[in-house]
SAUR-like auxin-responsive protein family (Actinidia rufa), 104 residues
Amino acid sequence: MALKIQNKPPQTASLKQILQKYSSFGKKNGFLYNGLPQDVPKGHFAVYVGENRSRYIVPISLLAQPEFQNLLQRAEEEFGFDHEMGLTIPCEEIVFRSLISLIR
């Protein structure tokens, strides 16, 4: 029995999926291929945080940060990435804002 060896770790596949679905890289002529709102600047994506699902626009560069990757892993475990309610981060807003401040 042969084992299939993946060149890319699963984390990389998840990050690509996030970029394709939630980032602004799909913009062309003011329209978005994937239905993203036009108020998301190029190189950024929207996330929804906390009980009230407050919306934050964050730079794609955060995807490379281990702390943010941990939040994405928790989001995938709790909500999955294949849904229509936007990328939801399962933590309190104050924690999210503090983490983003520390990363920047």
User: Anything to note?
Assistant: Residues 24 and 41 are 7 Å apart (CA to CA). Residues 1-8, 24-31 have pLDDT under 50 and may be disordered. The two ends are 47 Å apart (CA to CA). Helices lie at 10-22, 66-78, 93-103.
